[in-house]
Amino acid sequence: MKIAVVGSGYVGLVAAASFAEIGHQVICADNDLQKVAALQAGIVPIHEKFLPEIISRHCGERLTFTTSTQEAVRASEVVFIAVGTPTTEAGAADLSHVECVARDIARAINGFKLVVEKSTVPVYTNEWVHRAMLLNGAPEGQFEVVSNPEFLREGTAVTDFLYPDRVVVGCSSERAAQMMCEIYSPVIDGTYANEPTAIPRPEESLLVSQFIQTSARSAELIKHASNAFLAMRVSFINAVANVCELVGADIEEVARGVGADKRIGSRFLRAGLGYGGSCFPKDVSAFKTVAQECGYEFRLLDEVIRINEDQRQAFLRKVRTALWTLKGKRLAVLGLAFKGDTDDIRESPAVAIVKALLAQECSIAAYDPAAMERAKVELACENISYADGPYEAMHQADALLILTDWEEFTSLDLARAKSLLRYPIVLDGRNLYDPELMAGHGLSYYSVGRTAVVSKPVADPESQVPVQNGNDIQAISPNGNGHNGHAVHTNGHNGNGHHNGSLSAAAKAMKASANGGASTNGSNHAIPKNGNHPRK
Ligand code: UDX
């Protein structure tokens, strides 16, 4: 089928390249001249697994790029709208870009067009697009507007697209439903997976996907409700993590126990710094606003947002607890992206925390495997430097902060880290390590929803005194109020040795747990075991 995709952001570009990959003729339009020129030259502007591969496979043949929406519309039977819908100051979605595209489509119409709304939009947008097209001269009967929300996650966007759980299509005619079914058939019936050059199917994906046909309004609500529900799970587990800290329980154990209930499931129960990214914060806020406009006060979502914001503040309090004063402290920061496997820093909790620390006059040495170029623009400040690797960032730092769940950060050489840091302090906002393991290495370790372990102070940090025995580790309450009620279980094992074997075992176990299994690493080190992959 001949398809136009308007917008070449995360959703538009992945959709365009993936439609070409499953056999369609695609023309992707964007009004950003530089971006289009880069794409035409084969430069992929975002860090997304398999995307460069499928773009280079089809670019110039089944996939072309243009700066003219009207040209793309004229060449196609189906037009996907995939432009941005940023949040307005009032918390609603800004639909002005969507309206502009509707106008362009109406002006270029040269035969029947199926107009597919793929950007995340509030309920009723389908009707507004229809109206905008009529107002701009598109003849009734010459087009139909369909809602087809996208559920792709950054980092796994291409495989999410090619191996979806479901394809949701909100439309009002059988003709539109048939066309949509035809477009997606290779990924719904699984025939794409059998092609010799197919991008490999992730193990956990379904062999056959569901095609869910609904009204346009239901489709629009499915998208907002899905993202709000997932965000609610993240806030829920973060709230439970706060209770864990107060009573001396371990959130990893609690999440594993809760998630083992099939009715609940183990995904999206990973406590940390809260959710970020281009979707959850925007969509939760837009859903709340749209419900309010329709006459319903969705107070649950207020709490989801509040818990999420508090999570960052709670982490900053831990930094202060660990370091006392912040002014002039040098901090190594691992991770700037809003989650691992992406270069996206939009609404990144890591960036928010770095900004807050810079405002307190800390100096930061940061490292992220993919997000540093974007961060340099956002965090243009003389007190921040960017390192070439994690250990360079740690050199002479007063503490190490882990802020993004990159796989690379799950297997650090802890002995080396300790030798590079001025003080053996690690603050982990992603629970990538087991507290006992850290204690065994003589590191003070503050994480989320687990009791902090604090190593015995070293008289002279320059002297590189060997790490303490595990028995020397003492517990303090994570809020630093001196209350000392929750003993850390230490097994007395001596932390002097290098423990990379255990670390890579922990990393392996995290991978195994991505499939929902609980794991132990065989060396008495409990590992994060809530059944979630660090990046899922
Ligand atoms: C999300 C939705 O999953 C996707 O369907 C939608 O199309 C776009 O928004 P994405 O923003 O790429 O995708 O990230 P996702 O993997 O869903 O994670 C969202 C945020 O929640 C991240 O900041 C992540 O770190 C956080 N998160 C996720 C947790 O803190 N804990 C978890 O257990 C899971």
Description:
This protein is 39% helix and 13% strand. It has helices spanning 10-21, 33-40, 51-58, 69-74, 96-108, 125-135, 157-162, 174-188, 216-247, 251-259, 280-293, 299-323, 349-359, 372-378, 390-394, 414-420, 435-440, 500-513, and strands spanning 2-6, 25-29, 63-66, 78-81, 113-117, 143-147, 166-170, 210-214, 330-334, 363-367, 384-386, 399-402, 425-428, 444-446, 452-454, 474-476. Strands 3-2-1-4-5-6 form a six-stranded parallel β-sheet, sandwiched between helices. Strands 11-10-9-12-13-14 form a six-stranded parallel β-sheet. Helix 5 packs across helix 6 (125-135), helix 9 crosses helix 11 and helix 11 (280-293) runs antiparallel to helix 12. The two termini are 33 Å apart. Residues 460-536 have low confidence and may be disordered. Bound molecules: uridine-5'-diphosphate-xylopyranose. The site of uridine-5'-diphosphate-xylopyranose (UDX) has 20 residues, from helix 9. The site of uridine-5'-diphosphate-xylopyranose has 20 residues, from helix 9.
